[in-house]
TrEMBL record:
Entries under InterPro entries matching the protein: ADH-like_C, ADH-like_N, ADH_Zn_CS, ER, GroES-like_sf, NAD(P)-bd_dom_sf, Zn_alcohol_dh
Stretches assigned to the Enoyl reductase (ER) domain: 10-234
Protein name, per record: Zinc-binding dehydrogenase
Family as reported in the entry's similarity comment: Belongs to the zinc-containing alcohol dehydrogenase family.
Origin species: Sphingomonas tabacisoli
Length: 321
């Protein structure tokens, strides 16, 4: 039986590298020999331990930001062939190989040869941007400048919006400036931030606010920063328990609340293709965001770094020889 290496989440805080059966593509599937896979902040709750997560997990199971080359195709697959370099929406990519349905795969053009391409989060950013309905002349607050927040800062500023970036670390605020933010505010004091945004907007607050943290306080802050008739876009991934919302303020301001997580494959792939085009054309340069790289054997360290954010950390990539 052919085997491969795969990372298994054995228990909270414990990764084991095991041998697993090499998966065979079924009808309509392709097998990808992975070059790398991004580490997502959504991995952190299973890594820390959640009551509803089953341990041990599936081989490769936390990985969903993979890219690599197709090495086998299943029956009925057209338009994709062994040797094609691709990004995919697949879900066991902390392993040497992963399977993906052909409709969830996009070819990477020659302009991206040799470059990492964690397609899922890049596509996610483009889908969030589309749902945000950002227009030239608007004031847009982005709460949380990590990978998503930085990409959204570039897209919003490119669209002609005035971006106010709000984040805890000075390195994150510097990154937001690099990607086009007009104003930056340290995320330390709730009321001080509100007062600063009031001063910057003549008390009108923001037409669009994107919450990109996934915690209660940033959600409350985003509500407070949204102006009358504005849109609050929830881009943070809230998976560690219920949230409370200030329904009185939502109602009084008449704001639209948009949960910008897409689950329809066609919509997800639209964002992924837009991301491929933007990076290949040079419109978006995500390379400064890939700050830390680890081999598969050090996935646990990559997860810890994603949690602890050492130095100028933005995003970790696991790369394969």
């Amino acid at each position: 039986m052919a085997v491969m290496r795969a990372a298994v989440l054995a228990a909270p805080g414990e990764i084991r590298i095991e041998e697993a059966a090499l998966p065979e593509p079924g009808p309509g599937e392709v097998r990808i020999r992975l070059e790398g896979c991004g580490v997502c902040a959504s991995n952190l709750e299973p890594w820390a331990g959640l009551e509803w997560v089953t341990y041990p997990g599936a081989p490769g199971g936390l990985g969903h930001e993979g890219w690599g080359r197709i090495d086998a195709v299943g029956e009925g697959v057209t338009g994709l062939a062994p040797g094609d370099r691709v990004a995919a929406l697949s879900y066991q990519s902390f392993a040497d190989y992963d399977l993906a349905p052909a409709p969830a795969v996009v070819k990477l053009p020659p302009e991206l040869d040799g470059k990492p391409f964690p397609g899922e989060p890049l596509g996610c950013a483009f889908n969030i941007f589309r749902r945000s309905d950002i227009r030239a002349g608007q004031t847009v607050a982005i709460v949380g400048i990590g990978f998503l927040g930085a990409v959204l800062t570039r897209l919003a500023s490119e669209a002609g919006a005035r971006v106010i970036a709000i984040s805890r670390r000075q390195e994150s605020l510097d990154l937001a400036r690099y990607y086009g933010a007009t104003e930056t505010i340290p995320m330390h004091d709730h009321w001080a931030i509100i007062d600063q945004v009031k001063a910057l907007t003549g008390e009108a607050m923001c037409e669009r606010v994107i919450e990109a943290v996934g915690k209660q306080w940033p959600l409350d802050l985003a509500t407070a920063l949204t102006g009358f008739g504005g849109k609050l876009i929830v881009a943070g991934y809230h998976q560690d328990g219920p949230r409370q919302v200030n329904m009185q303020e939502w109602n009084w301001k008449g704001i639209d609340v948009i949960n910008a997580h897409e689950r329809e494959l066609g919509v997800q792939m639209r964002g992924l293709r837009e991301a491929v085009d933007a990076v290949a054309s040079g419109r978006l340069d995500p390379e400064p965001l890939y700050t830390h790289r680890y081999p598969l054997e050090r996935l646990g360290e990559a997860l810890d770094a994603t949690r602890d954010k050492p130095g100028a950390f933005v995003k970790a990539l696991v790369t394969f020889a």
